[in-house]
Specification:
The protein is an alpha/beta fold. The protein contains 19 helices and 9 strands.
Length: about 475
């Protein structure tokens, strides 16, 4: 009997199968945005069991388990690892049609050579088999990354981070593990006490007291340079939306000083401050030749009770309202007007923004490099078959699919790399369908560079990870 995960999974036509197996399947992986722990990579951790590898920090799975009626003690609580695994196995059959079902079985197949469907009936046997495998050196974190042909992995790091584990990994591991600058904490003005505590921490990391807006920018630039020296070549900005309001430095300085005295800002003051600091951060990205990523559109921490109990990134976020196209345009134009717009990747969480984002990106592609302003991969709640197919269709219609830099894991799990395979299969199936419908020529000199480029090569060329 044919297994669920088989050689031609998701490849619905002859052309798709040829494109995937010839041109995409064996490409290396450049994962230019994830949330993996550099300390775990440096320590070459080995997981004791599949619960640790799968369920620690994975709010996708926690959210599904809660929706399935599973008590919180089996998600983030005090239940044993085996009990948590059995509750995940109980949930998996209910995820049919959800990418979690596909990801789960791809990961079992690719890492453990297990092709049985995970369910309460198979949970004990699968748990035992994976425990035995995880004890072997072939399943240490570094071995897992090499197994999937990871070439570059970009973690997500705060400007105040010492980057000690990235330093340890330099010249010690054949996979490039690079830091990514994520300065979101200097944007979060809603709680002045937390903001002030963070500013003190940031100043300590640069051995400089931050007293005003100008010294804040100087400290950030010093830390940005440190990240660059340690290998960073891109930033990431996780924003609810793009900010824009005309400002003077005097206005912004007053607002910053008001914040660090523990006072709240008005909406107008906050908008001006956020605009000003984001402009400065983006100028740093341009100065050092980085690419900058903008993840926008999430409505975070909706459940205030659970946020108080568990904190952020635990599964209480959703899709926010569409972006303000005017503010987005004015923000990007402010940078472009002085020729300080870095290579830019735009990710949206609300699918209503797809076409707007694509056409906005086109406004700022000036021919200085191929697709200087990119439309980023389908993200988070859109990171599933329907979302990816819509993303590819929209990009094909309004941009240049052949120049797309491809997929990221955006994951905290070291077993998440089959998501690249998942995307590549969906890409090849889409292109194969168009070829067989006659809308794309069946010519390998046209198709090979498209598939190889989107699978791997475009990202390698875009970021300059291997430039001196």
């Amino acid at each position: 009997m044919k297994t669920f995960i088989h050689d031609d999974f998701l490849l619905g036509n002859k052309t798709a199968r040829r494109l995937y197996h010839q041109y995409s399947e064996n490409m290396p992986i450049i994962d230019f945005h994830c949330h993996l722990s550099p300390q775990m990579i440096a320590d070459d951790r080995q997981f004791d069991n599949l619960t640790q590898a799968w369920l620690e920090g994975d709010h996708y799975k926690w959210r599904a388990m809660r929706t399935n009626g599973i008590n919180e003690k089996f998600c983030t609580g005090e239940a044993s690892d085996y009990e948590k695994f059995t509750k995940w196995a109980e949930t998996v059959p209910s995820t049919t049609g959800n990418p979690l079902y596909h990801w789960t079985h791809l990961e079992l197949a690719r890492y453990f050579n297990i092709y049985d469907l995970l369910s309460p009936a198979t949970a004990a046997e699968i748990f035992k088999k994976t425990v035995d495998l995880l004890k072997t050196k072939a399943f240490s974190i570094r071995s897992l990354l090499k197994k999937v042909k990871a070439e570059v992995v970009c973690t997500t790091d705060d400007p105040s981070d010492s980057l000690e584990y990235h330093k340890k990994l330099q010249n010690a591991f054949e996979v490039k593990i690079l830091p990514t600058w994520r300065p979101d904490n200097v944007i979060k003005t809603e709680d002045p006490l937390k903001f002030t505590a963070y500013i003190e921490k940031l100043g300590e990391s640069a051995d400089k007291e931050i007293k005003d807006f100008r010294t804040l920018v100087e400290v950030l630039d010093k830390r940005h340079e440190f990240f660059h020296i340690t290998g960073a070549r891109c930033s990431d900005h996780g924003l609810d939306r793009f900010y824009y309001s005309p400002f003077t430095e005097s206005d912004v300085d007053k607002s910053f000083k008001k914040l660090i005295k523990g006072n709240d800002l008005s909406l107008e003051e906050a908008e001006k401050y956020k605009t000003a600091i984001m402009i400065e951060l983006c100028r740093m990205n341009h100065k050092r030749g980085w690419a900058q990523q903008f993840h926008v559109g999430a409505l975070r921490n909706n459940n205030s009770r659970m946020f108080r109990l568990m904190g952020p990134d635990t599964g209480w976020d959703s899709i926010g309202v569409p972006q303000d196209a005017f503010k987005m345009s004015k923000f990007l134009d402010t940078l472009d007007n002085t020729d300080q717009l870095a290579k830019t990747i735009l990710y949206n969480l609300n699918p209503a923004d797809n076409e707007m984002m694509l056409t906005m990106a086109g406004n700022f592609n000036d021919g200085s490099t191929a697709v200087k302003v990119q439309y980023g991969a389908a993200w988070w709640f859109l990171d599933q078959k329907n979302g990816m197919e819509k993303h590819i269709r929209d990009l094909s219609s309004l941009g240049l699919l052949r120049r797309f830099i491809g997929m990221v894991t955006d994951s905290r799990s070291f077993l998440s790399y089959p998501r690249h395979e998942y995307f590549r299969r969906i890409l090849c199936n889409y292109v194969g369908e168009e070829v067989e419908k006659g809308t794309i020529p069946d010519e390998d000199e046209l198709l090979k560079p498209l598939i190889v480029g989107v699978s791997w090569k475009n990202a390698r060329d875009y970021f300059g990870f291997y430039d001196e």
